[in-house]
Amino acid sequence: MTDATPTPGIHHVTAVAGDPQQNMDFWVETLGLRLVKRSINQDDPSTYHFFFADAEGTPGTSMTFFPWENLQQGQVGTGQVSRTAFRVPEGSLDYWEDRFDEYGVDYHDRVDRFGETVLPFRDPDGLPIELVEVEIPDDDPTVPWTEFVPEESAIRGFHSVTLWLADPHQTKELLRTMGLEEVGTEESPGDTPGDERTRFAATGPVGKYVDVLPTIEGSRQGHGTVHHVAFQTPTDEDQAAMRKAVSTHSVRPTNQINRHWFRSVYFREPNGVLFELATSGPGYTSDEPLDELGETLILPGKFGGQREQIEAGLTDVTIPRKE
User: Fold this and answer.
1) Is residue 318 in some structural domain?
2) Residue 254 is part of a domain; what is its CATH number?
3) Beta strands 34-41 and 111-113, pairing class
4) How far is it, in rounded angstroms, from Cα 49 to Cα 37?
5) What's the pLDDT tens digit per position in 82-92?
6) How far apart are CA 123 and CA 31, in angstroms?
7) What pLDDT does 323 receive?
8) Which residue ranges does the record assign to the VOC domain (predicted)?
9) Is the separation of the CB atoms in 150 and 140 below 8 Å?
């Protein structure tokens, strides 16, 4: 046991893309997520950092991307988040299959997992994604964005991530320390390696599940792979306590880093997956009004004085608009 407040679940997932316009078109228009922040990679200001989320950028809803255009194609394998899953309302998968047919999206047959129906597909960079039908409660914290997809079908934040691990034991212990509880195991469908999937549940309503699968599949960072998964530690105090708790697992968390919209601590869990602990605030509306989120290239902190140089090195992009 630990004195740290259990994590409510996933805060965000960050992946690697190729062409930035293709990435934006898919996640905004095809999947119907809102561009809530358009910025730069604060460790590599020569590339964008896009944040796609629900209408208000609620914690637990934002999928973010580094579009590194010149990077190689990645390979999903051990030591990575292999699947990122989103919640959609019950009965909406027919809508999504029709939409994927219309937009030419590569999707696969539905599968049943822990009593839920899952629709696997890939984005244009080959990133494996899933939609999972769930009952959305009336008091759900997410706010659907409906410019391209109707409310009754709109994505409502994260459902889960799947970790592919060479030796899951230590990672399972780490997840327990972070406050996730093992809630079941079942045989994995044939589309993923490993013979047994173990599910852990966090305490919150959104992004609460982490699935663990054993595999020795080779991996390579690049287009179509996840860079890291961030877990919610809502306050600085929560984060400091969790940082101390995970340090007992022979991981080496960084000091807190200010990421402008949240404060972060990073570490690699025992199998090499990059984990982040992220605070809830100050949030995406700390530097833009809610109705203008994503409209401006935001250059946080020290980068503000380098705008001309930074913009000159970025590919021009256009945010999709409904006609």
Assistant:
1) no
2) 3.10.180.10
3) unpaired
4) 8
5) 999 999 999 99
6) 10
7) 80
8) 9-134, 157-280
9) no
pLDDT at 3: 81
Looking at the structure of the chain, the number of domains it has is 1
Q: Is 178 exposed, middle or buried (0-12, 13-18, 19+ CB in 10 A)?
A: buried
Distances (CA, A) of 21 to 73, 123, 319: 17, 13, 8
What CA–CA distance (Å, rounded) separates 75 from 72? Answer: 10
* Region class of 305: left (phi > 0), else alpha (psi between -120 and 50), else beta: alpha
Q: Name beta bridge partners: 312.
A: none
- Quick: pLDDT tens for 208-234: 999 999 998 999 999 999 999 999 999
| CB contact burial 90-102 (16+ within 10 A = b; e otherwise) | eebbebbbebbee
44, exposed or middle or buried, with CB in 10 Å at 0-12, 13-18, 19+? exposed
| Domain around 28 | 10-312
Burial of 229 (0-12, 13-18, 19+ CB in 10 A): buried
Is 36 within the bounds of a domain? Answer: yes
Entry field: residues in the chain: 323
Neighbours of 55 (CB within 10 A): 18
- 42 located within any domain: yes
